[in-house]
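Lab notebook page, bench 4
Experiment: in silico fold of construct C2
Operator: M.H.
Input chain length: 118 residues
Purpose: comparison with the prior construct
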Amino acid sequence: MRISTIQPLKAVPFLLLAALLAGPSPVDAAERESYTLTIKNNRFDPVVLRVPSDRKLKLVIRNLDPTPEEFESYSLNREKVVSGNGTITVYVGPLKPGTYKFFGDFHQDTAQGRLVAE
């Protein structure tokens, strides 16, 4: 009895088709689940950002001020500086339903916000 080494190669087209039909990967889904926060006059806009729970999310934070700010959140376990007139991306989640506070570390008196996962 002869065992052919070509047999496994016949499965490759089927595996590729299955991968294409399976849909986007979790990373692709996070790219689509994008939410934007803006910093202007040392304040976040929107102050309350509502997002879906139980999903990976991409937060795009745009600083329209000429001075840097630091996006910080103890509950999200994130801390990242946004340069003046700069943009950063922060990935979070999946989040359980609830409220997650964030603030601008350089202007804590005015730069306050909440992310509400529903």
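Observations: The chain has one domain: 25-117. The first helix runs from residue 7 to 10.
Next step: discuss at group meeting.
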